[in-house]
Amino acid sequence: MNRRIAIIVTAVAAMLCGLPGLAIACFGTFMVLVFLQMPSDVRTESSPEFNLLVGIMIALLGVGIILIPVGIGVFSAYLSRGEQTVPSGEGDVLSPFS
Questions:
Q1: What is the number of alpha carbons within 13 Å of residue 88 lying toward its C-beta?
Q2: CA distance 18 to 70
Q3: Which sign does the torsion angle of CA 40, 42, 47, 53 carry?
Q4: Which of 3, 41, 45, 98 is deepest in the core (most CB within 10 A)?
């Protein structure tokens, strides 16, 4: 894979997955923080543990979505390294700077 294509694919994945994932993770964290700040008499609509669990699961879903562009970036960087050729022959000496 060409290095330029790898950078473009990583940037597109970051825009399409990373930013929404960040928004979802922030929303889930906000849900948890708001839930913990509410007085106990307001939290009567459903079970408090369920509301807290939903907030934590949404935050973890956002973190999982954020990891998609990270994986794509690592994978495309691995593929764009290219093959390193080693000169063959008896008289060839590899320089430490090559």
A1: 1
A2: 9
A3: negative
A4: 3
Listed by start position, the domains of the chain span 3-79
Residuewise pLDDT in 10s, the chain (98 residues)? 677 888 888 889 889 988 999 999 999 999 888 888 877 666 556 677 777 888 899 999 999 999 998 888 888 878 877 645 555 555 556 666 65
Residue 92 CB burial class (10 angstroms; 0-12, 13-18, ≥19) = exposed
C-alpha 28/C-alpha 23 separation (Å) is 9
The conformation of residue 97, written as its DSSP 8-state character, comes to T
